[in-house]
Amino acid sequence: MNLSEMSGLELIQAMTDGKLPHPTMADTIPMRISDVGRGHVTFRARADGRHLNPLGGVHGGFAATVLDSVTGCAVHTMLDAGVAYGTIDLNVKMLKAIPLDQDLIAEGRVIHLSKSLGVAEASLRDAEGTLLAHATCTCAVLRRHAG
User: Fold this and answer.
1) Counting C-beta atoms within 10 Å of the first and last residue's C-beta, which end of the chain has fewer, N or C?
2) Angstrom distance (rounded) from CA 146 to CA 124
3) Could you report the per-residue pLDDT of 62-101, keeping only the tens digit for each?
4) Are 71 and 90 in contact (CB under 8 A)?
């Protein structure tokens, strides 16, 4: 099937099932989709030695990237074939230091979708469920116009 003929949910599910390759960003920031449904997505992520700031802690950009990805993918699951999205605004609250070399869980869910905007929220937690970071994201819904 042509990618432009797949709904967002079908595309994300195909990546989850290994039928489509994951985005290359998921090599830079190790994250994989572990669960997907209409309006929600769960990722597994893991910070490693490539993600350190000058003080030796995990850079805040790690959490921001994971949360941007999981919120965007949640919005994508609600979109029809041929409809794209782009992040307009990402607000991240860092609540605890991101641990190095530990499995993390990011969960995103859509809280609003209109013809032109999608709004989602996400959490990043450690394996014990401790909330490390929270985000809200607004995405532009990019529809092709005939003519």
Assistant:
1) C
2) 39
3) 999 999 999 999 999 999 999 999 999 999 999 999 999 9
4) yes
In degrees and rounded to multiples of 5, residue 26 shows phi and psi of -70, -5
Q: Which domains does the chain have, with CATH numbers?
A: 3-142 (3.10.129.10)
Whether the Cβ atoms of residue 110 and residue 118 lie closer than 8 Å to each other: yes
Strand partners, 26: none
| 131-142/40-45 β-pairing | unpaired
Helix 60-76 and helix 8-16: axis angle, to 10°? 130
| pTM: predicted TM-score of the whole model, two decimal places | 0.94
| CA-to-CA dists, residue 105 to 10, 96, 146, angstroms | 22, 14, 40
Cα distances (angstroms) measured from residue 4 to each of 10, 55, 97, 133: 11, 44, 39, 33
Work out the pLDDT band at 147, boundaries 50, 70, 90. very low
Region class of 13: left (phi > 0), else alpha (psi between -120 and 50), else beta: alpha
Give the pLDDT confidence of 25-38 residue by residue, as tens digits.
999 999 999 999 99
